[in-house]
Amino acid sequence: MSLKIVLLGYMGSGKSTVGELLSSQISFSFFDLDHEIEQLEKKSVTKIFDENGVIYFRKIENKVLDKIINSENDLVLSLGGGTPCYYDTMNYLNSKENIKTIYLDVPIPVLVQRLFAERSTRPLIEKIDTQEELTEFIGKHLFERREFYRQAKMIISVADQSPTEIAARIETLLFQ
């Protein structure tokens, strides 16, 4: 049975960066769910949101997730920040023995620091003008999403470790 390592967490938590490093370390394929959606739709996530709306995006996201999860390959998958909150995704993922869900838990101040400079590339926060507004937005959003994130089989606090250290830690927790 193939092993699926699924990284989840808020935008800016390092899911894609850590996922790529981890997949390289353990010789698994790596998939970034947002990237796979962009490939399928031939447009950016931002453009999909703008042109088709959030409901359309979530339907496509769920279909692509299902396809990846049901492949025969060992893989590391980074989810979009909202993916765990829709379509009973966490129950679905956690019901499968071969799937290890891992929540990368990052403190709000660290998320604000990471996301403020790149907010123009993030549809949910592109119109936020100050760090104070971003802090408030992330706080409210995390309040809503944490109940889903905390359903992960493993929760890793990643406040001050480098992506390399986090990937090594996950490898150790899973394989030793």
Automatic annotation (TrEMBL):
Major localisation: cytoplasm
Top-level taxon of the source organism: Bacteria
SUPFAM superfamilies found in the cross-reference section: P-loop containing nucleoside triphosphate hydrolases
Note on how the cofactor is bound: Binds 1 Mg(2+) ion per subunit.
Annotated residues for binding of Mg(2+): S16
UniProt KW keywords: Amino-acid biosynthesis, Aromatic amino acid biosynthesis, ATP-binding, Cytoplasm, Kinase, Magnesium, Metal-binding, Nucleotide-binding, Transferase
Reaction equation(s) it catalyzes: shikimate + ATP = 3-phosphoshikimate + ADP + H(+)
Protein family: Belongs to the shikimate kinase family.
Name the UniProt record assigns to this protein: Shikimate kinase
GO terms under biological process: amino acid biosynthetic process; aromatic amino acid family biosynthetic process; chorismate biosynthetic process
Binding sites annotated in the UniProt record for ATP: G12, S13, G14, K15, S16, T17, R122, Q161
GO annotations of cellular component type: cytosol
Cofactor: Mg(2+)
Sites where the protein binds substrate: D34, R58, G81, R145
Subcellular location: Cytoplasm
MF (Gene Ontology): ATP binding; magnesium ion binding; shikimate kinase activity
Subunit (UniProt): Monomer.
Function comment: Catalyzes the specific phosphorylation of the 3-hydroxyl group of shikimic acid using ATP as a cosubstrate.
EC number: 2.7.1.71
CDD domains (alphabetical): SK
Pathway of action: Metabolic intermediate biosynthesis; chorismate biosynthesis; chorismate from D-erythrose 4-phosphate and phosphoenolpyruvate: step 5/7
